[in-house]
UniProtKB/TrEMBL annotation:
Signal peptide: 1-19
Keywords: Signal
InterPro entries the UniProt entry points to: BUG, Bug_dom1
Keyword hit for Signal: yes
Record-stated family: Belongs to the UPF0065 (bug) family.
Keyword Nuclease attached: no
Pfam families: TctC (PF03401)
TM spans (from-to): none
UniProt-recorded name of the protein: Tripartite tricarboxylate transporter substrate binding protein
Amino acid sequence: MLATRRALLLAPLATPALAQAPFPDRPIRLVIGYPAGGGVDTVGRPIMQKLSERLGQPVVVENRGGANGNIAMEFMARVEPDGHTLFMGDAGNLGITHALYPNLPFDTQRDFVGVAQLTAGPSVLVVSSAVPARTMQEFVALLKARPDALHFGSAGIGSGPHLFYESWRRAAGVSMTHVPYRGTGPALQGLLAGDVQLMVGNYGVFRGAHEGGRVRVLAISSPERHPALPDIPTVRETGTDWALVGFNGVIAPARIPPARRQVLEDGFRAVMQQPEMVAQMISLGSVAAFTPGAALDAHMREQRAFWTRLVREANIQAE
């Protein structure tokens, strides 16, 4: 009886120690490894706004461009793994980077865990309106007639757009001069200025210029047409047997507490299933395609193997 009374007296003292602190209890920082205006940034910001509403805390987007996102990912490998700092990346960050940079101070499979895949994004092949070719067939014929005479602009050597282009170029049997920029935004300015004639990337990057008649979308990389771009043919429809779809996902430091990882995963699941978010992603040329963190981990491993083969076969060297 005495032991029972002692336990009852001590129970209130133990409760605060056992109670878990609410999460998140302060703003979440979302790091993106590219400058503002790129494909990840374009789709990421509206998603993070909805996540903020869902979690009841601000989600602050922080762009840390440079070295195809490696600077940002090295920073992420050192942050406190408490779930308040996350990284959103694309195939370039989450699948390609180790194919190009074998001696990085971080490893995506060792140092990070997936929180959620958010989108599946086909790329569009876009030319300046000054290019005389009005169809992909005409553009391929132009490139074959003038090898390396025209210029392709990318977010940098080894970036997702660069390797998407390289994969398409090899399938189409054409050759262009590659002009790497420090991000998609600067590359787009080069396209609009006529310094480069072709870019590859998420439609959201080019939407304003396309609607304004300053660029021409020749084809899309997905196996089927996109609902927001029903008049744009797939590359396969234009005569080249090639299709490739990218993705965007969120990762966290590997030592994030599992319960916090789950809170974030559940938050992203709820956001990406909202009808207005599904519609907005389609309007940006992407597709809402949520998968949980464990599935993203597996996808990252598969992507790493795929791009490593391509980089070796194409003998692409990082800057």
